[in-house]
Amino acid sequence: xxxxxxxxxxxxxxxxxxxxxxxxxxxxxxxxxxxxxxxxxxxxxxxxxxxxxxxxxxxxxxxxxxxxxxxxxxxxxxxxxxxxxxxxxxxxxxxxxxxxxxxxxxxxxxxxxxxxxxxxxxxxxxxxxxxxxxxxxxxxxxxxxxxxxxxxxxxxxxxxxxxxxxxxxxxxxxxxxxxxxxxxxxxxxxxxxxxxxxxxxxxxxxxxxxxxxxxxxxxxxxxxxxxxxxxxxxxxxxxxxxxxxxxxxxxxxxxxxxxxxxxxxxxxxxxxxxxxxxxxxxxxxxxxxxxxxxxxxxxxxxxxxxxxxxxxxxxxxxxxxxxxxxxxxxxxxxxxxxxxxxxxxxxxxxxxxxxxxxxxxxxxxxxxxxxxxxxxxxxxxxxxxxxxxxxx
Length: 392
What we know:
By secondary structure, this protein is α+β, with helices and mostly antiparallel strands. The protein has 12 helices and 15 strands.
């Protein structure tokens, strides 16, 4: 099928994209640009003897937004709405349709975790008060923030809750009782801030610095929270974070910016150029515990072309040693689990970032659609499309 195309031109050849080779349960029958892709059963599928796939035909329709997709689903013109239309949309009409029994909602945890990042070590040329250099301030923020409320308010459709590490509680490497757990306790958080020297002496509701290292006396605790535009759940999270921190005397101005600006490399990018006070975004985990995210060698700088993950600028020799030892060990070895636990123990105390929640996956289907199972280890909802079916 590709015999007339040289290897040099194959990557850009239309036939390679329109008629891809593979071993999956379906093959492309028709592709109408901007409208639909029609797949039909692959008679050579290696599980055909098991009666798979269950469906003879699958049609992918391109629609502009979630309301349009919900309208098609209600009219019987489609059977399933994928995550790509759902994840950055207003979910109110979807939830209303679920309550009315018009659709079935399938939700599950994912490997994507939302976190609040502290600007611990700004870029060398940036002059600003050292708001978050003291771990006690970061711990106070953790106690001032009601993460359970934020998780349930941001994702009312899925089972999600506050987390205390960069891996979920059901992960084989989760450190469990070795973690420092900062439960919602605004009074304890305020006491920590007082201990550091952040006090509200003029009674205006904002704390000011008095004897705080790296901050001039009288400087108010007012910071900017950067986040991305166009993500309703993240916008709700940012608003609730600001509300909670205001109760503890920390003023937070939320500044949504475009994803292109937010994730731009340093030195010019605000987050990965280390020019921020607070930042809100998510990482998508693989199978392992990603302790390498916060190695000191991963601080974005000119030495690594600003292409690194430790945007807070966190540096801990103990954390580095634990993470490096975990990476040097093999799964199944005692050292592998031990040092991953040690890295999480240090992380949960130092809090270079505050883990908030794991983002739940969500798809919507018409009643009668069967076989849709979301797997946290799989990014797409179509990972088991051969098992999709319809109950008559």
